[in-house]
């Protein structure tokens, strides 16, 4: 049976029950609504490992490690035995084997791979998480598995890679694919999908800033880009329905040493397995 074609222009929808619940909360109180939206925003969906990723899942050495700065345990994947290591970082509701196509090609080109299930993702514990825990996980993995020559991140993983480099991750080059950019835009898009008023995006931001004692915009990818000198390849699809291409273009504009590669018709996830994309990555990461 032929596989269903992936429609790259179709954005993931929030289930109707969640939208209805948000509307009910809005009728009851603004405070309740903000707490509800914060919970939904920080709760990823755990997907079963698909068959296409089982080879990497079964052949990698898996280990549970602790990330002391956030007090959570995560599962890491060490794939291959070569000394030259590359770190792969998945996106929201992803898992450590999601970039398996890229991992396979890197193995064939003399690298070994370290990836991980971020907190509340895949086989790692917890139900909720935020980007700062992705970043903390990256920095802890560097301590235990590094040094890494390259870091590659998809979506939220791309934002996390840039922020981790800003915070001290040492890599020679980095690649970000379909990365988000401005945190407020991400919050506003989330609120829009919930069919709520735009002002609720600001309330959600204020809630997070008070709870975690940090400025959300400090985690925006373009801000991290401005502070790093590492060569970065930005890859984005013109038809990405999850993260608009303007995000990748804006990040590139703020990098001191950046390259931009735009694709067509690959959307947000199909781009991870595209041979032209992988070829571009391999060309870029070759150490001069």
From TrEMBL:
InterPro entries: AB_hydrolase_1 (IPR000073), AB_hydrolase_fold (IPR029058), Pept_S33_TAP-like_C (IPR013595). The keyword Hydrolase applies. Residues 225-284 form the Peptidase S33 tripeptidyl aminopeptidase-like C-terminal domain. Pfam families: Abhydrolase_1 (PF00561), Abhydrolase_4 (PF08386). Keywords: Hydrolase. GO terms for molecular function: hydrolase activity. SUPFAM superfamilies: alpha/beta-Hydrolases (SSF53474). The keyword Transport does not apply. It comes from the Bacteria. Residues 86-207 form the AB hydrolase-1 domain. PANTHER family: ALPHA/BETA HYDROLASE DOMAIN-CONTAINING PROTEIN. This is Alpha/beta hydrolase.
């Amino acid at each position: 049976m032929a596989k269903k074609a992936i429609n790259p222009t179709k954005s993931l929808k929030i289930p109707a029950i969640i939208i209805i619940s948000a509307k009910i909360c809005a009728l009851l109180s603004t405070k309740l609504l903000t707490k509800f939206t914060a919970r939904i925003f920080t709760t990823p969906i755990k997907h079963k490992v698909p068959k296409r990723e089982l080879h990497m899942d079964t052949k990698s050495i898996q280990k549970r490690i602790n990330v002391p700065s956030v007090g959570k345990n995560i599962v890491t994947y060490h794939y291959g035995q070569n000394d030259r290591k590359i770190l792969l970082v998945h996106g929201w509701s992803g898992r450590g084997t999601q970039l398996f196509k890229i991992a396979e090609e890197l193995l064939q080109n003399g690298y070994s791979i370290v990836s991980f299930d971020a907190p509340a993702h895949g086989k790692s514990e917890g139900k909720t998480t935020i980007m700062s825990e992705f970043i903390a996980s990256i920095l802890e993995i560097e301590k235990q598995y590094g040094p890494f020559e390259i870091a590659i991140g998809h979506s939220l993983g791309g934002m996390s890679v840039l922020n981790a480099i800003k915070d001290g991750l040492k890599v020679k080059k980095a690649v970000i694919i379909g990365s988000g950019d401005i945190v407020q835009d991400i919050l506003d898009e989330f609120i829009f999908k919930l069919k709520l008023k735009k002002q609720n995006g600001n309330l959600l931001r204020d809630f997070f800033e008070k709870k975690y004692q940090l400025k959300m915009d400090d985690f925006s990818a373009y801000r991290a880009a401005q502070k790093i000198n590492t060569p970065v390849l930005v890859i984005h699809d013109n038809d990405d329905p999850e993260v608009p291409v303007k995000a990748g273009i804006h990040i590139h504009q703020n990098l001191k040493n950046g390259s931009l590669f735009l694709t067509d018709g690959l959307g947000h996830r199909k781009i991870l397995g595209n041979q032209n994309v992988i070829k571009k990555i391999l060309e870029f990461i070759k150490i001069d």
